[in-house]
Amino acid sequence: ELPPSEFMQVADSTWLVLNVVSNGREPPGCQATGVTKIARSVIAPLAEHHVSVLMLSTYQTDFILVRERDLPVVIHTLAGEFDIYKEESGECVPVTSDDVSNGFLKPKPAASPMLHPVQSPQTRFCVLTVAPDTLPAIATMLIDVLFYSHSPPWDAGTGSQDLDSITFFSFSLIEGYISIVMDAETQKRFPSDLLLTSSTGELWRMVRIGGQPLGFDECGIVAQIAEPLAAADISAYYISTFNFDHALV
């Protein structure tokens, strides 16, 4: 419903959302959380079949966005390890490889990982949530932080490798669940009794992937970041945006 505008850029692909739902049985000895839990089983196989993904980690769970035209490849790639369902009129309907037609399987591309610069600012971030019924109490402050408080994002120079800080604020509202990522200094502006976060009060550091906007046709970036972290049993959150990828550890 948004009106066309010269100020709004829209990717030319339509994206579908995948959500991995656990059956309650975690792999033995697996302590990693966030994107690293599904790195080997989902993200890496898709990268091997040249499927580009966008990742969105939230306080509650992780979401993988794939282009609609890649869906046949996605289903055939993951069907051996997962039970796949699609939502129709609010109901979950099983999907099999026979339900998608032609266009697969893409041949595995030659290994040619792209190398991107990374920036790791000193900023410390909080991953938190807020109850929907308390949102009105922080709405004015939230709007101010989202749209009016930050300096222009390019002030520090896009090519800088030693940024002291980074302007980053993520707000997700998915099926009534709110997930927020903000820096520790910004968190101090909000009433502490309304923001729910980890009982340990842990903070996160960020690695931003890309010195210039990434291409939507690039694949394997999430896997290159998440797989080594999963192997080292390191928890991570991962947020893809229109221009860059951001990994929080």
Keywords:
about 250 residues, alpha+beta, 2 domains, eight-stranded antiparallel β-sheet, three-stranded antiparallel β-sheet, about 20% helix, ACT-like_dom_sf
> Tally of extended strands?
13
Structural class: alpha+beta
Please provide the ordered H/E string of secondary-structure elements: EHEEHEEEEHEEHEEHEE
Q: Main sheet, how many strands, which sense, barrel?
A: 8 strands, antiparallel
Number of helices: 5
Relative helix content = 10-25%
Description:
By secondary structure, the protein is α+β, with helices and mostly antiparallel strands. The protein folds into two domains: 1-114 and 211-248, no CATH class; 118-209, no CATH class. It is 18% helix and 25% strand. It has helices at residues 39-48, 71-78, 135-147, 184-187, 221-231; strands at 15-19, 53-57, 62-67, 84-88, 91-95, 118-119, 124-129, 170-174, 177-183, 196-197, 204-209, 237-240, 245-248. The strands form three sheets. Strands 6, 7, 8, 9, 10, 11, 12 and 13 form an eight-stranded antiparallel β-sheet that branches. A three-stranded antiparallel β-sheet has the order 1-3-2, with helices on one face. A two-stranded antiparallel sheet has the order 4-5. The two termini are 36 Å apart. Mean pLDDT is 84; it is low at 24-30 and 154-162.
Summarize the structure.
It is built from 5 helices and 13 strands. It has helices spanning 39-48, 71-78, 135-147, 184-187, 221-231, and strands at 15-19, 53-57, 62-67, 84-88, 91-95, 118-119, 124-129, 170-174, 177-183, 196-197, 204-209, 237-240, 245-248. The strands form 3 sheets. Strands 6, 7, 8, 9, 10, 11, 12 and 13 form an 8-stranded antiparallel beta sheet that branches. A 3-stranded antiparallel beta sheet has the order 1-3-2, covered by helices on one side.
